[in-house]
Design a protein that fits this description.
The chain is α/β, with parallel strands linked by helices. Helix content is 52%, strand content 13%. The chain has helices at residues 34-48, 66-80, 96-108, 119-133, 145-149, 153-161, 163-166, 185-188, 191-194, 209-223, 231-243, 248-264, 272-282, 285-292, 296-308, 313-324, 328-340, 366-372, and strands spanning 56-59, 84-89, 136-142, 171-178, 200-203, 311-312, 344-351, 355-362. A hairpin with a 3-residue loop joins β7 and β8 (355-362). Bound molecules: adenosine-5'-triphosphate.
Length: 373
């Protein structure tokens, strides 16, 4: 039943297709990334001819289309060629073993046996299969920075890049995708890897505001009812997204949350205030993502830092040790990990009476962190 005026009826929605605004949606069109797509195609083309593809480092800040570019190209390869493709999410699979388990699943279409099969066996089954089938495998290590944080990147790349030496005829190419622009990947890997890893570099710069408007406009058309989102609202979303380092994930999330806010108020059209209210929650999407990826011990330490409000590393250690009983070495490792993923900042300062001491600061508002733990 439709009600009069601007109010939504119970059976109505501001959305036409809400799925278009979900995180795993792969967009039909992919504008403003032509040169990056060309470079990736150039690197992957040898695979189509049965040769080893060129290796690639795809770099750029979060939400700049790196994953989408690879998903699109891998989708085309899967549909139109015999090349085997596998994208591994290293935020989830952050060890060499987990990466190869995921590759096993992509190659065989079923999971490796759960009852502890050794890395060597995993590796051999995958490479044997490639040789038997005369197949080329293109691997994308997405969010590879997480392998670096766990000190697993050298072993993983080494195994992939030298696969053809231990198993003649195994052809594997690797696209590593990193969203940590401070991390120099080539410095993070050891010399054995550096000597075989000579990747093509593909850079994904942040989208500027007109590009953001253009991309989001298409989502609005597909995702919302006609006229539900006007140009002023779209501009506001694009402005906030551009301020957030052009992270499109933020823009898409804002649109969806603003739409839900309008619905909650029973309105047919989204207003700028819906966007501003949505921003208060959406600005923490990266924080939520990072906290979700932490281990229990890492969460414990983050919790201690949030409740202490940061401070001297020694004091934070005491509180952490009281809670977990863990020793200083482990504490220092976890502290470094939290800093590498960008949840805290630390810096050495000279404090009277204490000499040089490491000061810890949360990178986010303490309440926002505590809510997500
Ligand atoms: N040019 C584009 N056109 C349409 N949608 C896009 C475009 N670029 C990115 N997106 C959308 O923005 C969101 C983030 O993109 P994507 O996951 O590809 O970024 P990313 O660079 O891999 O991010 P991260 O480094 O954080 O993993 C996705 O929902 C994707 O669909």
């Amino acid at each position: 039943m439709t009600e009069d005026g601007d109010m939504l009826g119970w059976d109505e929605s501001v959305f036409r297709d809400e799925h278009v605004l979900e995180i795993d949606y792969v967009p039909e069109t992919f504008h403003h990334r032509d040169s990056q797509m060309e470079s990736l195609k150039y690197a992957l083309r040898p695979a189509v001819r049965g040769s080893r593809p060129l290796n690639v480092i795809a770099r750029g800040p979060p939400g700049t289309g790196k994953t989408t570019a690879v998903q699109k190209l891998f989708g085309e390869l899967r549909a139109e060629t015999d090349v085997l493709v596998a994208r591994v999410n290293c935020q989830v699979d952050a060890t060499r073993y987990a990466v190869f388990s995921s590759l096993f699943e992509a190659v065989f279409d079923y999971e490796p046996p759960a009852s502890g099969i050794s890395f060597r066996e995993l590796f051999e089954q995958i490479t044997d299969h490639l040789v038997e089938e005369d197949a080329v495998l293109a691997v994308a290590l997405d969010d590879v920075n997480y392998l670096a944080y766990e000190n697993e990147i050298s072993e993983t790349l080494y195994s992939l890049l030298r696969a053809h030496e231990s198993q003649t005829g195994a052809r594997i190419g690797v696209i590593v995708i990193s969203s940590d622009t401070d991390l120099e990947l080539l410095d993070a890997v050891d010399e054995r890897v550096q000597s075989v890893f000579r990747p093509e570099e593909v850079f994904f710069p942040p989208y500027d505001q007109p590009e953001i408007v253009d991309i989001l406009d298409e989502r609005v058309e597909r995702g919302f009812q006609p006229d539900a989102v006007g140009p002023t609202v779209l501009d506001r979303v694009a402005e906030l997204t551009a301020d957030h380092d052009g992270d499109l994930r933020m823009g898409i999330d804002l649109l969806r949350r603003a739409g839900l806010n309008a619905e909650m108020a029973g309105r047919r059209t989204v207003a700028s205030e819906d966007v501003d209210a949505a921003y208060e929650t959406a600005k923490h999407v990266q924080l939520s993502r990072d906290v979700n990826a932490l281990s229990d011990t890492e969460r414990d330490l983050l919790g201690v830092i949030a409740s202490e409000g940061g401070g001297h590393a020694g004091d934070v250690f005491e509180a952490f040790n009281d809670q977990t009983g863990l020793a200083y070495t482990r504490y220092a490792e976890v502290l470094n990990k939290l800093e590498r993923v960008g949840l805290i900042d630390t810096q050495y300062t000279s404090v009277e009476g204490r000499g040089r001491t490491r000061m810890i600061e949360l990178a986010y508002d303490a309440d926002a962190v505590a809510e997500r733990l």
